[in-house]
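Figure 6 in text form: structure in, sequence out.
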């Protein structure tokens, strides 16, 4: 039960961060909650081999550094190795916000990015 409430709490915070980005919707992808920028998912609350985790795309320059942290692991369904999964253990929400924005920027179209940049300039 503890894991379920942790997952629910993480989902609530993910909603707050993801749905605040331009043109993001929440849906379900392969049975998991997914946040999409337009049609493309950029954050997925997942469970892989019994580990609750969050999938997101990363900046290629950050990938190796993040993988050196045991809370991050390769996503099994990401053959191009553009994303990672992160366990729900000890989430630093400031760090997670930055990772979510990076992931969003990997899939968002120019109009969405312009809206995000305009919002951040205010």
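Output sequence:
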């Amino acid at each position: 039960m503890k894991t379920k409430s942790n997952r629910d709490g993480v989902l609530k915070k993910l909603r707050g961060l993801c749905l605040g980005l331009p043109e993001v919707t929440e849906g379900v992808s392969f049975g998991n909650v997914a946040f999409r920028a337009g049609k493309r998912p950029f954050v997925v609350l997942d469970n892989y081999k019994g580990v609750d985790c969050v999938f997101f795309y990363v900046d290629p320059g950050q990938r190796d550094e993040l993988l050196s942290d045991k809370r991050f692991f390769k996503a099994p369904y990401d053959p191009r190795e553009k994303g990672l999964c992160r366990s729900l253990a000890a989430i630093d929400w400031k760090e997670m916000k930055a990772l979510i924005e990076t992931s969003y920027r990997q899939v968002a179209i120019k109009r969405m990015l312009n809206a995000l940049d305009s919002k951040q300039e205010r």
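Caption detail: The longest strand covers residues 40-48.
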